[in-house]
């Protein structure tokens, strides 16, 4: 059983451990979206302070994944095939421990983004991924996300990112 909860400062060592294990796997697959300097403890600490970092926890208490779920959209999102002015829940820094991959961890974290969207009365979900990240390019469409174009991100020069968006159904209003 997998549970999703907000991350705490006490989770930082486990989160950083996941990143240390994920980055070499990503790099070996030709995906250089993340390196030793990003994402780092300061970034995750800020996510925690803003109450926007979520973790997936296994039954034994081990952390299996992490994601920042925010409404922050990078300025470069204006390059994508969507209305960049529309508010959305955006998934950033999604990572799954290599030992837990294939167990639905990423899907569970993305499901939490849907929960937040409904709580915040938002109807759009957005995420971007490195153009070399084959796993997420297979996952996002399976979860109902549509491809919304390719962009560059100023803080990761030389890399290209694919954008994905999911429209949630509008809840019927009761009178």
UniProtKB/TrEMBL annotation:
Q: Does Acyltransferase count among this protein's keywords?
A: yes
Q: Quote the Gene3D superfamilies the UniProt record gives.
A: 3.40.630.30
- Annotated signal sequence range: none
CDD domains referenced in this protein's UniProt entry, alphabetically: NAT_SF
Q: Which Gene Ontology terms cover its molecular function? A: acyltransferase activity, transferring groups other than amino-acyl groups
Q: Which Pfam families match?
A: Acetyltransf_1
* Listed InterPro entries: Acyl_CoA_acyltransferase, Bact_Acetyltransf, GNAT_dom
Write out the entry's keywords from A to Z.
Answer: Acyltransferase, Transferase
Protein name in the entry: GNAT family N-acetyltransferase
Q: Which organism is it from?
A: Hymenobacter busanensis
């Amino acid at each position: 059983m997998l549970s999703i909860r907000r991350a705490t400062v006490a989770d930082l060592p486990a989160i950083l451990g996941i990143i240390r294990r994920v980055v070499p796997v990503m790099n070996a697959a030709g995906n250089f979206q993340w390196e030793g300097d990003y994402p780092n403890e300061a970034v995750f600490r800020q996510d925690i302070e803003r109450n926007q970092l979520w973790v997936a926890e296994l039954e034994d208490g081990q952390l299996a994944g992490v994601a920042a779920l925010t409404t922050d959209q990078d300025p470069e999102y204006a390059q994508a095939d969507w209305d960049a002015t529309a508010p959305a829940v955006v998934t950033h820094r999604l990572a799954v421990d290599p030992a837990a991959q294939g167990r639905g961890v990423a899907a569970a974290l993305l499901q939490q983004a849907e929960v937040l969207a409904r709580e915040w009365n938002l109807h759009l979900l957005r995420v971007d991924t490195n153009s070399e990240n084959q796993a997420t390019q297979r996952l996002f469409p399976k979860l109902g996300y549509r491809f919304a174009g390719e962009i560059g991100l100023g803080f990761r020069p030389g890399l290209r990112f694919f954008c994905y968006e999911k429209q949630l159904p509008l809840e019927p209003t009761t009178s």
